[in-house]
Amino acid sequence: MTQPLAPDHILAIAPYRAGKPIEELAREFGLDPAGIIKLASNENPLGCSGRVREALSEAAGALQGRYPDPNAFDLKAALAAHHGVPADWITVGNGSNDLLELASLALLDAGSSAVYAEHAFVVYRLATQARGARHRMVAAKDYGHDLPAMLDAIAEDTRLVFIANPNNPTGTHLAPEAIGQFLAAVRTRHGNRVVVLLDEAYDDYLDPAERTDSTQWVRAYPNVIVTRTFSKAYGLAGLRVGYALAQAGLTDVLNRVRQPFNVSVLAQLAARVALADQEFLARTYALNRDGRIQLQEAFAALGLDFVPSHTNFVLVKVGDAARIDTELLRRGIIVRPVAGDGLPQHLRVTVGLPQENARFIEALSDILAQ
């Protein structure tokens, strides 16, 4: 009998499927790549800031055959000043996905479990499965997290709770008061043995009245990790850089399993420059706010149900999502099917530039009228 190449819990993983690349669609349908628009991966349609481009252009000519700073001293110093926390509370990652994996690697094993919500970011499920840990997926409430039910789902073997706020792929948002109450209840019932990871990849897209300083929870609770990314609002998706905030003890644990040199020289530089360019961040927020309204008003006019979004994408119920997705692809428009997230009748549409949103709306209207 042939022995399997890997343990059963690894063979059971369905690999992550990213949004279809523009080049791949061009090959499949014989399309001109220049005419394709991609509204699938929640990327910033503005790209990155001009300051970042200039810094990278200058740095590229001076690249040497040296490894990057393994501890990202300058980037950590900038992040520490930005958030008002000690530098030894920061872990850098190859995108925030890397931090999610590090948390699961450090905290989960075959004898433990993780709690996460239905319709939450798929990497929570993948990271849990990769460690052979038990899944405790809690049914969604109005497409978002049911925090009381998640609290009740924490078992004796639970070591990690994932919370996406705002949530991907549904775009829902939990009020700061609800998060604070949940963290206090976890600490009261379970002490520090259960770590809560707050994934804030889309926090920069929140309206000002919805925002809160999540470092308050890191300061109050030694069992809290907050993860952020430069891939979304800062437009550095191609460079892969994110970070986690946690008290020193938990940060030390994450760094014990972090790969050395996991953030490149150029990524560290780009993140520092991007962090300082708050004008670009404000421009991104305004463009996204207006584009989100553009999409949601169009969906309402078409009589489509959608989840009011707090992010840079909108989840919309279109019915035969597979057919509509294919028809959009034929027209050179890439959006994101979410059947794998338990939403077979929905599509997730990233907010693009105004003209990209308009082209998508026109194509969707035409398809629905057929």
Beta strands, count: 13
Main sheet summary:
7 strands, mixed
CATH superfamily of the largest domain: Type I PLP-dependent aspartate aminotransferase-like (Major domain)
Q: Can you tell me the CATH topology of the largest domain?
A: Aspartate Aminotransferase, domain 2
- How would you write the strand order of the largest sheet? 2-8-7-6-5-3-4
- Structural class based on helices, strands and sheet pairing: alpha/beta
Helix content: 40-55%
How many domains comprise the coordinates?
A: 2
Sketch the topology as an H/E string, one letter per element: HHEHHEHEHEHEHEHEEHHHEEHEEEH
Low-pLDDT runs of 5+ residues are none
Using the coordinates above, name the CATH class of the largest domain: Alpha Beta
CATH architecture of the largest domain: 3-Layer(aba) Sandwich
Strand content: 5-15%
Principal-axes shape call:
globular
Annotation field: number of helices: 14
**Averaged pLDDT, please?**
95
